[in-house]
Specification:
- It is an enzyme of class 5 (isomerase).
- By secondary structure, the chain is of the alpha/beta class.
- It has two domains: 201 residues, Rossmann fold; 103 residues, UDP-galactose 4-epimerase, domain 1 (Alpha-Beta Complex).
- 39% of the residues lie in helices and 18% in strands.
- The longest helix has 21 residues.
- The structure holds nicotinamide-adenine-dinucleotide.
- The site of nicotinamide-adenine-dinucleotide has 29 residues, from helix 1, helix 4, strand 5 and strand 7.
Length: 328
């Protein structure tokens, strides 16, 4: 069985990817410092190394012991809003940490990598659908840190022969359809879990940041991708990289191609949970683009991937089921 090193594997998306890797016949090896992840999000029999991606010695030991075929690199700081106040932390973990990992991969001749990039690299493009050929114009240090790693990957492909795929996720959401994993960020900043916490009575109200965007109802529009579909895309990316003879570097959007406004998502959360929680309108937050919706065509052609869960209804339902299970 091939080992796949999963950095950030104890996090929200990582824990779902580990489930999918196992179901697909791989052995995930998780490398995570638990700064934002959960040890119990990973099955006890999955090899787990609690360490920081900036720690070269721990990386060297892990590569020597497990000899992974590929790396799925998710370890990062993820809060775009925080990056507007503390960019240094984001460049340190997301950029310097990634560089440290890539150089450990070179030392151990493990040259296959799937990288967690983000739709935040597009910034405020003002287009209905975003495709991978657009210039990158991130609006916050978080997005810029991810764009920098994409640039590093392009050079490591061209000069050191890496095979790399950067997946630009749109808004990851939902929970494992079988209820084995879900989203547990603390602090929580994502729309659907915040709305569901309001529905469960854990928040007194739900805040909407900005009602004056140039969108039909004035609130931001995002493309919500089910975390189970996202996990599927990673397994397909690993399969694609490891079956190729030639080196490659591809950037691929992972989204559905359908956008929902903040108001639409809140209304769906209220109708699915049957709870009418209070909603208040606040000023815009700096760094939030009005609309981010993927053109997902490249993922279908290159990875033979398309989402199973194309509607936000399933995403919210699975998240709500996970909340009900973990709160009971
Ligand atoms: N959640 C989304 O909607 C979304 C969208 C686009 C891209 N992404 C990217 O996907 C990846 C996973 O996101 P997530 O939502 O699962 O976040 P998460 O915070 O739940 O997971 C990140 C994991 O990385 C670990 N980590 C952080 N810094 C580390 C370090 N220095 N060394 C080792 N481990 C470290 C954390 O402990 C955590 O378990 C991130 O790279 C994020 O930027 C997420």
């Amino acid at each position: 069985m091939q080992n796949i090193l999963v950095t950030g594997g104890a996090g929200y998306i990582g824990s779902h990817i580990c489930l999918k890797l196992r179901e697909s016949g791989y052995c995930p090896v998780v490398f995570d410092n638990l700064s934002n992840g959960h040890r119990d999000a990973i099955a006890p029999d999955i090899p787990f190394i609690q360490a920081d991606i900036r720690d070269s010695e721990k990386l060297d030991r892990t590569f020597s012991e497990f000899q992974p075929t590929a790396v799925i690199h998710m370890a990062a700081l993820i809060e775009a809003g925080l990056s507007m106040h503390e960019p240094s932390k984001f460049y340190n973990v997301n950029v310097a940490g990634s560089l440290n990992l890539l150089d450990a991969m070179r030392r151990h001749d493990c040259l296959h990598i799937v990288f967690s990039s983000t739709a935040a690299v597009y910034g405020n493009a003002g287009l209905d659908l975003l495709d991978e050929r657009l210039p990158v114009r991130p609006e916050n240090p978080y997005g810029r840190s991810k764009a920098m790693v994409e640039t590093m990957l392009a050079d490591y492909f061209a000069i050191y022969g890496f095979k790399a795929i950067a997946l630009r996720y749109f808004n990851a959401a939902g929970a494992d359809p079988k209820g084995r994993a879900g989203e547990r960020h603390d602090p929580e900043t994502h729309l659907i879990p915040l709305a569901l916490q309001a529905a469960a009575g854990l928040r007194s109200e739900m805040k909407i940041f900005g009602g004056d965007y140039n969108t039909p109802d004035g609130t931001c529009i995002r493309d919500y991708i089910h975390v189970d579909d996202l996990a599927d895309a990673h397994v397909k990316a690993v399969q694609n990289l490891t079956s190729r003879k030639n080196t490659t570097f591809e950037i691929i959007n992972i989204g559905t191609g359908k956008g929902y406004s903040v108001k639409e998502i809140i209304e769906l959360c209220q109708s699915i949970t049957g709870q009418k929680f209070p909603v208040s309108l606040k000023p815009r937050r700096p760094g939030d683009p009005a609309k981010l919706v993927a053109d997902p065509a490249k993922a279908k052609v290159l990875l033979d991937w398309q989402p199973k869960y194309g509607s936000a209804h399933d995403i919210i339902k699975h998240s709500w089921n996970f909340y009900m299970k973990t709160m009971s």
